[in-house]
Design brief:
Layout lengths: L14 E5 L5 H8 L15 H9 L1 H6 L1 E7 L4 E11 L4 E8 L8 H17 L3 E7 L3 H9 L3 E12 L2 E11 L15
Helix pairs in contact: 1-2
């Protein structure tokens, strides 16, 4: 696994990625607490302390990678990354979030596209998957724009704010790494 490289966003976007750091927890917590940020997600505790614990968790360094999406002034706009990286089975789960003020501008799509490409090349992942709450239409659109295919509905997959909720499973496989059997209809 290549630990010291990072995905790169297209130059047309006035944003860049860097490893998520402890100092990001305050801004991350702030925007995740805003109306419109987590209503259609499974986020639970978005306190500064909970996010700091997530950033420094030792499992985070080997099984997860998360980058801050920053503007030209290094202000946090969102995060993007991979959870549940499984090198034995060459797969990982895509995750992202954006401040409500920066949604609808293509940032999540470009960041997700960059992370998928990075996971295929730097990590050798064959499969990148994502689960999305069935009511999260914006995130579903992002996943479809980056070439992920809907694989099925996971009934009562996670409890969200105390209620069992359904999630869609999406995935994209790399055709060259999957013996030519992957989905190559929307190259990164």
């Amino acid at each position: 696994m290549v630990l010291h490289s990072s995905p790169i966003l297209p130059p047309a976007f006035p944003t860049h990625l860097r490893e998520l750091a402890l100092q990001d927890a305050v801004a991350w917590s702030y925007y995740l607490s805003l109306p419109g940020a987590v209503e259609h997600t499974s986020w639970g505790d978005v306190s500064v302390e909970a996010l700091r614990r997530q950033i420094v968790d030792p499992a985070h360094t080997t099984r997860c990678r998360r980058w801050a999406i920053l503007d030209s002034d290094d202000q946090l706009l969102g995060t993007v990354g991979l959870n549940d990286i499984d090198m034995e089975h060459h797969r990982a789960e895509l995750a992202y979030d954006l401040s409500p003020a920066h949604q609808g501008r293509g940032l999540a799509t470009e960041a997700a596209r960059a992370v998928i490409a990075w996971a295929h090349t730097a990590l050798g992942c064959v499969r990148i998957q994502a689960t999305v709450l069935d009511s999260n239409l914006r995130s579903i659109a992002v996943l479809e724009r980056v070439g992920m295919q809907r694989e099925g509905l996971l009934r009562s997959y996670r409890h969200v704010r105390g209620q069992p909720r359904d999630f869609w499973m999406y995935a994209r496989t790399h055709p060259q790494l999957h013996g030519g059997q992957g989905d190559d209809r929307a190259a990164p």
